[in-house]
From TrEMBL:
Organism field: Salinivibrio costicola (Vibrio costicola)
Protein name in UniProt: Cell envelope integrity protein TolA
Biased composition (Basic and acidic residues): 121-230
InterPro entries reported in the protein's UniProt record: Tol-Pal_TolA (IPR014161)
Domain of life according to the entry: Bacteria
Chain residue ranges for the region called Disordered: 121-232
Pfam families: TolA
Length: 347
């Protein structure tokens, strides 16, 4: 298409030169014809009393004029050829610039598509990491719950052992006459008590280890969250120039804060329930409390909002027993957790 434009442009630029050349040829033909007519006309016999006027065309003048016309045509043709050459060179430069611009635009488009592909892959990888962290936290919670059930079972065994010791003591008092047999029974009861005490210490040690495992799981979850925040910051830098992506990141940030607040609320509730001492008569009841925490998780105040009175008293005691709650590093999440409302239900 560019070659067609060049040919059309050349034809348009030759039109003025061709018109000038045709006009000069026409003048030359007229001059030659007039000169030929004068040369062929015989000189008439002068009449008496008449004046004869004659015009003579000098061939040298005509030839000089023709030569001048030919020189002008040659000069005009040369100038036109030079002008066409300059236009052709300019058109070539413009074509090269157009091709370079098209190549640059193709490269920009390719880089943009590559950046979008990398962003999609990074987003997918972050989602997988988050899912793994949540799964690890769930496993840690299950282990903590299992350890708590084991502790309750050991406490029940301890209560049964203490009851057995009391019964043995009553038997000793009833059989005071049989001193030796009673002392033997007392020795056996003491041995049983020592065994139960050892089991109690073992259960407390297992509970302590379970608590350490839970804290380690929370630490790993916090580490995963920190890495996720760093990766989100990198994505924010990558897409800082795209308004639509910025809007999506802002929405994702809000959802992330809500999810983290809910997750920490569940951790707080679990810590309170582990220290909750209630009887079976409160099963199915619930208590709503409002806690006010410092930025480091230190308990500042706890208030009863609604629920069973006895359960709320036990809940407040359990909250005070915890006293220090884990807090994230994110300032926005901390602001949401500093005053939080929790619903506690006996397991």
């Amino acid at each position: 298409m560019s070659e067609t434009k060049k040919v059309t442009h050349k034809k348009d630029s030759l039109a003025p030169a061709l018109a000038i050349s045709a006009a000069l040829h026409l003048v030359l033909v007229i001059v030659l014809l007039v000169g030929a007519d004068f040369g062929k006309t015989a000189t008439p016999t002068p009449k008496a009393g008449s004046t004869i006027d004659a015009t003579v065309i000098d061939p040298a003048v005509v030839n000089a004029q023709a030569q001048k016309i030919r020189q002008q045509r040659a000069q005009a043709k040369q100038e036109e050829a030079e002008r066409l050459k300059r236009l052709e060179q300019q058109a070539q430069r413009l074509e090269q610039q157009r091709e370079q611009e098209e190549q640059r635009l193709r490269e920009v488009k390719r880089q943009k598509l590559e950046a979008e592909r990398q962003a999609r892959e990074e987003k997918k990888r972050l989602a997988e990491q988050k899912a793994q962290a949540e799964e690890q936290a769930r496993i840690a919670r299950e282990k903590a719950q299992q350890a708590e059930r084991e502790r309750q079972r050991k406490l029940e065994e301890k209560r049964q052992a203490e009851l057995a010791a009391e019964q043995a003591e009553k038997a000793r008092q009833q059989k005071l006459a049989e001193q030796r047999k009673a002392e033997e029974a007392a020795k056996k009861a003491e041995a049983e008590r020592q065994r139960k005490l050892a089991e109690r210490k073992k259960a407390e040690e297992e509970a302590r280890k379970a608590e350490q495992a839970r804290q380690e799981a929370e630490r790993k979850a916090e580490e995963a969250k920190r890495r996720q925040q760093e990766q989100e910051a990198a994505l924010n830098d990558l897409f800082s120039g795209l308004e639509s992506e910025a809007s999506q990141r802002q929405s994702a940030r809000g959802q992330f804060i809500q999810d983290e607040v809910a997750r920490y609320g569940a951790i707080f509730t679990q810590m309170i329930q582990q220290r909750l001492l209630v009887d079976d008569g409160l099963t199915g009841q619930e208590c709503v409390v409002n806690m006010r925490l410092s930025p480091t998780g230190l308990l500042l105040d706890v208030k009863e909002k609604a629920g069973n009175t006895r359960l709320c008293r036990a809940t407040k005691t359990a909250v005070v027993s915890v006293s220090q709650f884990p807090m994230p590093d994110d300032g926005d999440i901390i602001a949401k957790l500093r005053e939080i409302e929790l619903t506690v239900r006996p397991n």
